[in-house]
Amino acid sequence: MEADELLVLVAAGDQKAFEDLYGLVSGPVYGLVRRVVRDPAQSEEVAQEVLLELWRSAARFDPLRGSALSWVLTLAHRRAVDRVRSARAAGEREQREARRGHGPAFDQVAEEVEAGLEREWVRRCLDRLTTLQRQSVTLAYYDGYTYREVAERLSLPLGTVKTRMRDGLTRLRDCLGGAA
Q: Which helix (H) or strand (E) segment is 29 a member of?
């Protein structure tokens, strides 16, 4: 039996006719898809989708418009081109996303040099504070103590520590103002 006759029987739900048609068209379908898609695994998948579509849509075949093989190969070509376009679009989306998310490269050396310079500047400014101001600021900001804990550690009234901290932080801000 020819593909045209088999396809008419497949449209009526004849499974045996589909098996015979499958045997006739699976090779040419895979060959066409493979030329378009190029990837063997993807080609197998697309060819399988085409043959499944052939089973489902056999009733749409019109023998007056062309041969069954031409119709099947047209289905295969369209499906293969769709897969290539879809893969290309996905790749382009990934590239756009990668470019969008890709900021300037991190320069570790420059960051370390800059951090070192900032630390040195802070040290110089801390050296300009009175001893009590420097102790209070260091305990609070570098060691993480609360004002109350700083007062206890230095054996000073809380109000005195708060005043020294405020004065010390004001002097630090003024000194570091050139850094900002």
A: helix 15-37
The rounded distance, in Å, linking the Cα atoms of 68 and 10 is 11
Give the C-alpha separation, 134 to 157, whole Å: 17
Helix 108-127, helix 158-176: angle, nearest 10: 130
- How far is it between the farthest Cα atoms of the chain? 107
Question: What is the radius of gyration, based on Cα positions, of the chain?
Answer: 39
Task: Extract the tokens encoding 142.
Answer: 């570098």
Phi and psi torsions of 39, nearest 5°: -75, 125
Instruction: Return the amino acid letter for 70.
Output: S
Contact assessment for residue 37 and residue 88, using Cβ atoms and an 8 Å cutoff: no
pTM across the whole model: 0.55
Nearest of 73, 83, 59 to residue 27 by alpha carbon: 73
Q: What is the pLDDT of residues 69-120, one digit of tens each?
A: 999 999 999 999 999 999 999 999 988 888 776 655 567 777 888 888 888 9
**CA distance readout (Å), 66 to 4, 25, 36, 143, 180:** 9, 15, 22, 86, 78
